[in-house]
Amino acid sequence: MPYEIHQGDALTRLAAIPSNSIDAVITDPPYNSGGRTAQERTGRTARAKYTSADAAHSLADFPGENKDQRSYTYWLSQLLAESYRATKNGGVALVFTDWRQLAATSDALQAGGWIWRGALAWYKPAARPQKGRFTQHCEFVLWGSKGPIDGDAHPVYLPGLYTASQPRAGRVHITQKPVSVMRELVKICRPGGTVLDVCAGSGSTGVAALLEGRNFVGVEVTPHYAGIAEQRLAETERQIAEGTTDPEAADEEQAEA
User: CA–CA separation, 235 vs 205, rounded Å?
Assistant: First the structure.
């Protein structure tokens, strides 16, 4: 199969992944921010942090959103160090973050052994305006490499800015990322290579990887979301086999699959 989903704690599950077997790590860990004070960051659930009171959906919660910044940095450093071991020389890591955790995430990336290469921006046009303040239109993707990058081996030219709103109709995860953005990011992996997501959520990274001709290994701690990811990946694989995928399909259509 071109994909695998492992349900369980990422640090435990990563130990079973062979060294030097992964081409690209692309992951969206819990940000552990979403609050003005330490109490707000560590004392509320993910749903309370990231779902507005007037939201049209009621999605399952997920754990891991109650770390302070120091413990978050230590945890993510461990995760990225183990991902580094599993990655081939010249491979890359892409890690989503927000403005509050940008510095901590860059520290964790480098503590994990990666050479920090830069920051990408994901621009969200539908971000909610804030009276008297600047709108928080962007989230970020920090990326690095395991040693030097051989551009001739995979000569792609990728942008550093991506524009898309979060999926609405058919949304299945509180912090779900747009498949359109993920399809662009997985192109950093060579065709036929393997993408690893250690916080797989509902499987959007994996869906994008399969659609772009890459293999996928995902780890998800929550049984509910691991099940959803498995369903979405199986449906995507079926559509690819039947030739019924639409390259222009909206993220909502992928989410409903």
Answer: 14
